Amino acid sequence: MAGQVYFEDINEGDEIPKLVKNCSSQQLVMWAAGSGDFYQIHYDKDFAQSTGLKGTIVHGALKHAFLGQMLHDWVGEKGRVKKFGCQYRGMDYPNQDIACRGVVTAKRREGGENLVELEIWAENPEGQKTSPGTAVVALPSRK
Amino acid sequence: MTQPSIITDEMRAVIGQESDPQAVEVDRSAVRMFARAVGHGDPVYYDVEEARRRGYRDLPCPPAFLGTPVFLPSQPPRAVYTGFKSPFKRVLNGGTEVEYFDEDICAGDVLTSTTKIADLGERQGSLGPMLIIRFETTYRNQQGKVVAILRGTGIQY
Hints:
The complex is a heterodimer of chains A (143) and B (157). Chain A has one domain: Hotdog Thioesterase (Thiol Ester Dehydrase, Chain A). With 143 residues, chain A is of the alpha+beta class. The radius of gyration of chain A is 17 Å and the shape is elongated. Chain B has two domains: 115 residues, Roll (Thiol Ester Dehydrase, Chain A); 39 residues, no CATH class. In chain B, strands 2-1-4-5-6-3 form a six-stranded antiparallel β-sheet, with no helix packed on it. In chain B, strand 4 and strand 5 form a beta hairpin. Chain B is mostly beta strands and 157 residues long. Chain B is built from three helices and six strands; from the N terminus they run H-E-H-H-E-E-E-E-E. Classes of the chains: A alpha+beta (143), B mainly beta (157). Strand 2 of chain A pairs antiparallel with strand 3 of chain B.
C-alpha cells in the first residue's frame, strides 16, 4: 500500500487512487458465502437467464464493499472510513472491469476529527457510473 | 389525473416500528472470509498480531461487514421481511449506506441489531409502479453503544 495520506495534503477536487476489480465466478461464490446472499442470479447462469437477465450479475453489495476497500486502502493505517454508501443503478457482470473511483468534494474539522467528503462510484468498461454514492472518511493531521 | 397510491394504511402503520433485537456475532472466521471475498490485501483483516499492532482489540470488521446474524430456522430471513403484505413479487436492491461511529467493531464483539422501515416511497417506473422501502438497522455493541447504522433501499415492483 502507498504511504499514509494526511488531511493537509488533500484538496477539494482531488481524485483518489482508483481500484479496478474484475470478478471471476469464483469470487461471486466466495462473496455469497462471505455475505450470506445466496440468490442464484449471482452464480447460476441458467437461473439468471430464467429471470430475464443475460447472465449472472455482480452483487450490488459486493460493489459497495469494493468501494469500501478503495477507501480503506486510501485512508491508510491512521485513517478511518466513517460513512459510505452507493445506489445500485446499473448491473455489472463477471469478467468485466469494475473501476472504483472517488473525488474529494469537501474538507472540514468537526468534533476533533479531520473529515473528508467524497463522491464515489463504480463504473463499467463503458464509463457508466453503475453505482454512484458518497463517503466520509477521517484522516490524520500532520500537526 | 392522480394515480391512487400503492402505499396502504397497513403499510404506513409499520413505518418506524423497531424489530425485535437480533444477535450479530463478529468472529474471526467470518471477518477473514469476508475480507477474502472482497479481495482485501491488508493483513489487518487476517492477522491478529497485525491488528493488535495497529491498535485494534482483534481483527477489525472490514468496510460494509457487520457480522453475521444468528440464523434461526424458525425466523424469516430479515432481508425480505417487511411486516406487511406486499402486492409485488419482484425485489431489487436499490442501494446501501453504512455509517460507523467512534468505537471500532472487532472480532469477538457480539452486536445487537434492530431494524425498522424508516420510510416508504413510490415511483412510476418503466416496469410499472414501484414501492421503495428504506430500511434502517442500528447495531449496538456489548456496552450498548451504537457502533453502526446500515441504511438500505429495497425496491419492489
